[in-house]
Structures are given as structure tokens and as C-alpha cells.
Design goal:
The chain is an all-alpha fold. The chain has one domain (2-230). Helices cover 81% and strands 0% of the residues. The chain has nine helices and no strands. It has helices spanning 2-19, 21-38, 40-49, 55-75, 90-112, 121-130, 133-146, 154-180, 184-230. α2 packs antiparallel against α3 (40-49), α5 packs across α9 (184-230) and α7 packs antiparallel against α8. It is globular and about 70 Å long.
Length: 231
Amino acid sequence: MKAISGIGRFFVGIPAYFKGESFKHYLKTLRYAFYVILHPFDGFWDLSHEKRGSLAAANTIVILALLTNLWDMRFTSFMFNNTRWNRVNIFEVIASILLPLAIWVAANWSLTTLMDGKGKLKDIYIATAYAFTPYVIIGMPMIVISNLITSEEGAFYTYFNTFALIWSVMLILAGMMMTHDYGLAKGLVSSLLSVVGMAIIIFILLLFFSLISDAIGYVVSLVKEITFRVS
């Protein structure tokens, strides 16, 4: 009965949450993403130093970016998309975005702590997530548009998708500059070093898992050999 009562209170509390101050704050921080992409320097500064952003809004943008990527692979016109959906592993696609994002945040934080960076892990993640906004607001409409244009008009589709990616990359750079209170040169150097750091982290992870796999394989073969000799 206590479990049923708890579930009842949970569902009763849902409408109250959408009317509460927490939800209003979430919507406010989510809308702030539009200000950030149009006024990146002021926007990212306030995002981290004035706490105008939130983890909830950042997570929402990342989820929307994941959905945009999946929908792009599934619904983009065959003229601009060679993906065979029946061969797509959704979990691999999600991991291909979330893992690089996590590694980027870890690498950037590790390097910037040695370069007098002001940003924390949370600040770096939020700034990077907000920088994905152009990819979402341009990518989603382009999925629909790809099914309405001809192959001769494909340059239009390619241009806007490329523009969205470049815009997001430039926003990440601006975000790191404002988050860590860097100038252009130091922000660019720290971002490039973070990419190098990502490569090093990925190499170490691959080496680690390779060693673990070899160790497990050795133990399994040893157990099989002992079992064979005993029997």
C-alpha cells in the first residue's frame, strides 16, 4: 500500500512541477541557448559566471542533438544519405557522440587546470552542450527539407549542414574562452591541446581494454587447459 501511495503522490506531483519555479527556471535556461548562439561572448560568460545555464537544459540540448543525428540517418532523403538503417546500431551511434563529449570535457578540464583555467567540469560540459544548439535548430529542419528538394538543389542542403557544424565549432571555441577567461590565442591553443589530449585518452583506453581482453583470454585458456588435463 505504501508503494501504491508513493506512486500516486509522484503522478499527482507532476502537474505541480510543470507549474513550479524549477520548471520555469529550466525553460528560462533552455531559452537562453538562443541568446548564447547569437551573442556568444556575453552569452557564454553569463552562462558560467552568472549561472544563466543549467545542467537540465544542457542535457536537453545533448539529447536533441542525439535525436537529430539519429533522425538524420533515418529520415534524410536517400539522395543525400547513404546510411542503411537496418544495419545501424543505435547504441553505437549514441556512444559515438556521448563518449567523445565526455572525453572532450575530461581532456579540456585536465589541461586547463594546468593553464589557470577558471572553468569546472560542469561549466565545460554546459558550455559545450549549449554550443550544439545550431546543429539542432538547423539540422532538424534540413531533414524535412531534404525530402522536398531535388538532387540539383543538394548544394543548399550541404551548405546549411556545413554551416551548422562550423557554427557549433566556433561556439565551442568561444565557450572555452569565456568559461576559462582566456583570450583568443590561449583559448585556441587550449582547445587544440584538448583535441590532442582526447587522442591520448582514447589511445590509453584502447590499450587498457586490449590488455584486459588479453588477460581474460589467457585466464580462460588456462582454465580450459587445467580442466582438460584433470578430466
